Amino acid sequence: MLITNIEVVPGKRVKQHLGLVQGSTVRAKHAGKDIMAGFKNVFGGELKSYTELLQESRQEAVDRMTQQASAIGANAVVNVRFATSTIAAGASEILAYGTAVILEDR
Amino acid sequence: MAALIQLAVFLLLLLTGYFFGRRAEARHYQTIVEREAQLGHILLSSERLPPPELLHYKGSLVMGNVVISVDYFKVVAAALRNLFGGRIAAYESLLDRARREALLRMQQEAEALGAETIINTKLETSRVSGDAGKGIGSMEVLAYGTALVPPPPVT
To answer: What is the ipTM of this complex?
Structure first.
């Protein structure tokens, strides 16, 4: 499965367009990490635990999108976009969406 | 008495934020400049299509993200600036750092794949709510794009 955020894949031709696929996930860190992040708001600097959390959730969102795409028989997802929104303190939703297509060699 | 204690706590937080925050920022900028020099050969572009001479390269999604926190001094400086209006330099440098860091992490991922060019770079900023009350708390910056990986040499 090819996942890319460009619209035209070099050397390939879109044989069939299968429509929008998406994957999302909502995640939160446990309270201890939130408290540590609160302290960090005094000192400044990177919040590594949140960076990792969001990285993992983004991977999860991409995986779900990929599953949906393979379920409808696509072999690539093009024009992938990410969106993030804060739902509540310490929880965020990550959405990945793109266009599922069947590609063939030109 | 209670007011004095509150004032002392506030000043302590302000000083801690000022010293640690400035030190963290100076160090971060130092590593950013170093790594930008190292990874400068990986071209970033926001073109939507690969350049014609690289059409046979394979595209691969790469991304880099960073969550960066404000310090107490920046929160207070920004709150004061909010009264008068104008540029909030304290937050500008924070977001500049975060954005450059995210781009660097994306470039690192591209380098690991052996790519020399990243096209269709997109940047996204979002707020991760922290404990900073009405301040901006922590910011996340995500950079993503398509790395063009050269095809394996034909043997």
So the answer is: 0.81
